[in-house]
Amino acid sequence: MNKKIRTDAVDHLFDGFLSLKDKEECYSFFEDLCTVNELLSLSQRFEVAAMLRDHKTYLEIAEKTGASTATISRVNRSLNYGNDGYELVFGRMDAK
């Protein structure tokens, strides 16, 4: 894990995330926290990760999401060499 992001401020932010109870609360909080473009970028990366996990090609992903090949490559690197955060979330989502 990247020790540079482990700060009291990030801990406080994550505590805020963990206090949210449903999608409506997430919408309220994230619309206040993020710009529209930031939120769309995060959701785009998450969609790219899901498509990579489903073995879609870079071309298919770029066409469906509008993500650049650089973004797709970055997400792919996280999936393959990251901290397994995507897999943790996708695994829990799959279990539902």
TrEMBL record:
Gene3D superfamilies xrefs: TrpR-like
Taxonomic superkingdom: Bacteria
InterPro entries, A to Z: Trp_repress, Trp_repressor/repl_initiator, TrpR-like_sf, YecD_YerC
UniProt GO MF annotations: DNA-binding transcription factor activity; sequence-specific DNA binding
PANTHER family: LMO1763 PROTEIN, TRPR-LIKE PROTEIN YERC_YECD
Annotated protein name in UniProt: Trp operon repressor family
UniProt source species: Kineothrix alysoides
